[in-house]
Amino acid sequence: MIRRCFQVAVRLGRHRVLPGVPQVLPRLNPTSAFGSSTDALVSRFCLKKTDLKDYALPNASWCPDMLTLYQEFLEKTKTDGWIKLPSFKSNRDHIQGLTLPFGLAVASDISDWRIFTRCIQVEGQGYEYVIFFHPSKKKSICLFQPGPYLEGAPGFAHGGSLAAMMDETFSKTAYLAGEGLFTVSLNIRFKNLIPVGSLAVLKVDVEKIEDQKVYMSCIAQSRDQQTVYAKCSGKEVLSLSTRLCPATITLRTNGRKNAEDALPSWDPAF
Amino acid sequence: MIRRCFQVAVRLGRHRVLPGVPQVLPRLNPTSAFGSSTDALVSRFCLKKTDLKDYALPNASWCPDMLTLYQEFLEKTKTDGWIKLPSFKSNRDHIQGLTLPFGLAVASDISDWRIFTRCIQVEGQGYEYVIFFHPSKKKSICLFQPGPYLEGAPGFAHGGSLAAMMDETFSKTAYLAGEGLFTVSLNIRFKNLIPVGSLAVLKVDVEKIEDQKVYMSCIAQSRDQQTVYAKCSGKEVLSLSTRLCPATITLRTNGRKNAEDALPSWDPAF
């Protein structure tokens, strides 16, 4: 039986293993996570030349607060070490050197994939956001403007849309700060509703990297910081270690013809 | 200055107040929350006759697991007290008797709103789900099938899409079980990834209603319960009490011409 768990590592293009051969993947060196490897990750993530559409660029739907703060941070990319992250339609585009030895994409009848936070294509209707990352400070700023298709209570963004935006910002930040792979926990306290069409500024900090996990915090607030929309803490796992990918993993098919995907299994304390 | 906070209560069609007049909204009687009021809420929520499209009905994209479990629960609606909840494209459609005295919908240039979990219109591409609710047991089952536009890691649902699905199931359950209005906290532990196109079964329980809050838990797992995808606990506030809608609330405009919406403010312990 093919240990499909390892397909995930291969799909993610960072750990290559032979099918059927359980391997102990290398544990991350925290020093390297906070050292030059971040620069390498940023270089790999922020392609200088690409034909892929970057969705994290201003468009006519952006509100004035979003536009002016975007310009402010764009200036900081020239003077203060901030980096504007590109945002492609799929994580498949973000991960370079991707190979699919077991041909999930080929075997599947699905050809059109989208990362959840770019699922709505009409400008202004869904997620509008851009993430800036500071490699040496290990922090990110996400400018987020929810559209009318992200509604919960009438006129306001659904709490789940903010949760997903926080998760996505954690995910990208953790990857660049220390090769964080998957979210294992999110603890969110909602404090105020975000009006549809307005700006929420998410400030994300890497608190620590310890025991193969990236510990992160986030506060989402109005531009003037007078209104806190939510606070969140979260953890991302760093690599597919043996604990996450045990030799005893069982292949699961979930009863769908094209859903024989791998289930990387982990068991964080709950 | 109009205290726009109260617009929310009016928009939600359940508390009518005069503009500019701070009011102490009635505190909920826990007995009524677990008594006949649930039946009244269910009747109001599940319209017998409507021209609105119900998105919680089987379509060609549903996987076999989803279809068969849907049929099983549909049988239980006849014999075991379960109720299938309809799912319209907007919460505006769900809330009956809606009046907008300050004309938010008229003033806005947005005419097309969607609840976040119905934001993608092509069948199978985004959220496919149906919620069954049991009034006397105060529990829900949500059958959730993520599509390829909900992707995170290649081939798997974004954690944020599951967080939003849990939040939405909490929200509808809390509303029907005790008039819960807004989510104040979500604590999620992710354990396994959900393959795109497969079924996740979310079991939601109301643990208690106390101090104006509905305390809830959720486990998301495969149909055979052998794979736990995530566990979650959450709280919903019951009504817009003075704590949630303080007299000192400040109107905020967020720098966008049509975003002068109310910001119901609360401050749960973080």
UniProtKB/TrEMBL annotation, chains A, B:
Gene3D superfamilies membership: Hotdog Thioesterase
GO BP of this protein: cardiolipin acyl-chain remodeling; long-chain fatty-acyl-CoA metabolic process
UniProt-listed InterPro entries: HotDog_dom_sf (IPR029069), Thioestr_dom (IPR006683)
GO CC terms of this entry: mitochondrial matrix
UniProt xrefs under SUPFAM superfamilies: Thioesterase/thiol ester dehydrase-isomerase (SSF54637)
Source superkingdom: Eukaryota
Domain named Thioesterase: residues: 155-227
Annotated Pfam families: 4HBT
GO molecular function: long-chain fatty acyl-CoA hydrolase activity
CDD domains xrefs: PaaI_thioesterase
Protein name, entry field: Acyl-coenzyme A thioesterase THEM5 isoform X1
Origin species: Zalophus californianus
Protein encoded by which gene: THEM5
